[in-house]
Design goal:
This protein has helices at about 10-15, 25-35, 35-60, 70-80, 95-100, 205-215, and strands at about 110-115, 115-125, 130-135, 145, 150-155, 160, 165, 170-175, 185, 190-195, 200. The radius of gyration is 19 Å and the shape is elongated. The strands form three sheets. A six-stranded antiparallel beta sheet has the order 1-2-3-10-5-8, covered by helices on one side. It has six helices and eleven strands. It starts with 9 loop residues before the first helix and ends with a helix. The protein is an alpha+beta fold. Helix 1 (about 10-15) crosses helix 3 (about 35-60) and helix 2 packs across helix 3. The model has no long low-confidence stretch (mean pLDDT about 80). Bound molecules: zinc ion. Zinc ion binds near residues 4, 7, 8 and 32. Zinc ion (ZN) binds near residues 36, 38 and 39.
Length: about 220
């Protein structure tokens, strides 16, 4: 999709390629990569570099400590594509294959958050959470900051906030320094896939009160 302007930074692609990225973030990356030729190509390059580095390490004296069997298994693992092949789930409507997989092939179960905003939690645990958000056109998501990192991938429509505009396929990366108020653009409702590795901090009292209820 050539209209994508906000991509995945290298640090996250490398963490993803090496399998060290939190599961919630991995889903956002898998979904973006399924929509973005550029990031798919960059991921392939990182995987190739990772494999070459391992080959070199095995040629050195220190690397000799690696048994031939372990080396073979590591290289084999690196050769495995990160995306499941063949994909278990295909894109359905605005939802990419990896999201359909997280949904178990079923439509999202939307829960109202107020002001027409809805969410569907895909997974929630100690290490983070990932959810679908539905934001009616023109509607703002309550002002919030982050204790950790938040990745948001637009699946339908568009939103803008203090940092810029995000359309279909774009990824916003918000860290604990950013207090932002995303607003959905006029037109189609904005549907996003959002992952966090820590609870969001809402500035107003009521959302904070509801935080344990809605697990946001
Ligand atoms: Zn990209």
């Amino acid at each position: 999709m050539s209209s994508i302007t906000h991509h995945i930074p290298d640090e996250l692609l490398i963490a993803y390629a090496s399998g060290s990225l939190e599961q919630a973030f991995s889903l956002v990356l898998a979904a973006h990569i399924s929509m973005c030729d550029e990031c798919r190509a960059r991921l392939g390059a990182h995987e190739a570099v990772g494999g070459a580095m391992l080959e070199n390490a095995c040629g050195t004296e220190a690397g000799m400590a690696l048994s031939a069997d372990l080396k073979a298994r590591l290289l084999d693992a690196l050769d495995d594509p990160v995306e499941p092949a063949p994909p278990a789930y295909h894109r359905s409507g605005v939802f990419p294959g990896p999201v359909m997989e997280a949904l178990g092939g079923l439509p999202p179960k939307w829960k109202p958050l107020g002001m027409g905003v809805r969410q569907s939690i895909l997974s929630h645990g100690k290490g983070g959470s990932v959810r679908l958000l539905y934001i009616p056109s023109g509607q703002a998501v309550p002002d919030h900051g982050h204790n950790g990192l938040e990745l948001t991938l637009v699946l339908q429509g568009a939103f803008h906030d203090e940092t810029g505009r995000f359309g279909v396929g774009d990824v916003e990366i918000a860290d604990s320094d950013l207090e932002h108020t995303p607003v959905a653009e006029e037109g189609a409702a904005c549907i996003c896939l959002a992952a966090t590795n820590a609870a969001l901090r809402f500035r107003s009292f009521i959302p904070r009160l509801l935080q344990p209820v809605f697990r946001i």
